[in-house]
Amino acid sequence: MDLTLEEQSELNKLIENYKKIEPFILKHPRLFYVELDYLIVHELTLFTVDPDFSFEALDAELNVILGALPAIKRIFAQPCIHLKEQNVILPTESVRIINRDTVQHIASHSELWSNVKKNEIKPAKLLTKTYDDNYGIYENLVFCKTVDDILTFARNNLRILKELIYTNRSIEINLLERVNHLNYFLALGKLHTGYSRNFDSFYGVSMQCLNKLQYIVSSIVPRLKRPVYKNNKNRPAKIKLHKTNILSMHREYRRIYKLAKYFAAHEIGTVAEIKKADLDKLQSNYFYFCELLSIFAVTHFNFTYRKAFPVNFSRLNMSFDFKGWQLTLKKCKCANFDVLSLCVEKESAYTAVIIPCTAKCGGELLETVKKNMPADEYDLFTPFEEYGKNEIPVSMTSIESFRRIQQIVLRAMVYADTARTDCPFCNNKLTVENGVYVCRSCRTEIHTGRCPTTKKTFMYTKISGLNKRLIDDDDWLSERKKEAQMYFRNITEITGDMEIVCPHCNKVHA
Prior knowledge:
single chain; elongated; six-stranded mixed beta sheet
């Protein structure tokens, strides 16, 4: 497998996070819903943030890196290099160095003459020496490997810290607010049992660590285009560390050697080998996680499971109801790949296909499913922090994951309902005002739009009287804030200014 060190580290973390899901399914192949609801609180983990995370250890490691950061900057600016000398034949106008070898060579190679006159020759090409900067010395390879280890370490811990801080802000409960679903706080309470850390006591040091990590990354990343790193990208995956004259006597390189030894002693940058069986197990675990989280999201969005027989996770086929809506969630096979079908019916039917995928070839898989399984929408779920435009981040470490699934449910409910008598969000009555369906209780507005480019209609939702929140684009929480600024009650994509993005042409229409 051709994976970078950072990708291997991320996959190892995912394998560790989801490894307990399949054992839970094997232990409980069939459960009554009441039992499942109990086990979600007491045994099964649908949300967690690294339970073994140590702020003290992280702060100590960051101080070591910060101590070596000045040396790293100086090496980026003035690395040690070797001059590589070679003989080449160049056009006369390009030659800058002429020596005795040049004269001897041109005297014995008449094919390089362009003109011959009495007592003189005019050469077309000459033998000369060129000197190239060789950045590929062992000490620079160690330096580049250490830089990669620093970035992998920093990005992994940035992800953990950001989730910790964002989660702490998300679970601050305001019982008077009317923008979240009535069951939202109940869902948070159940998920919060898997997040038992008393974060308030760590908030100060976590922000300090976050600032240090961001400073380290911002100091290194802009310098990665320097020749010492750029010219050494194709280097051995593993480099055995041993002391050389430069690593022991050069002041900056000596700091790098000490830092590399520290990393080796604390297993920073050490990544376990990933086998195909590990990736297959991760995909299986992630599918079951998405299956369980989908059940959790649906049942905490007004829908009720009233069947008397138990849930079979291997052959999932569950039916839920809420007023006039019927929701079916079932496991399907498509192109030898497991997917989830979420179908909502009322006056009409709306089907969403959920595709849980832990591979980087999600786009190809999405196109395959579209060709083989007709549906109204296709949602590619990914557990990765960095995701593409057509991917939805659903993971065990993101507190908002269940709300992203509820957003799909809400969209399906709006499109399946043509009578529009009941609010799909809070089950109160809708009224019509100037062609817009409005709920007086939760302030939901259901609008009909028309794309001027494709001439197709689409539905979109708003919240009456919702004030726009200022979002700083430089804030690392900006993307999360933009996504949640309508509290996941928008059924179309929205911009940072809360403008509706047309689902047909991906543009904002006036």
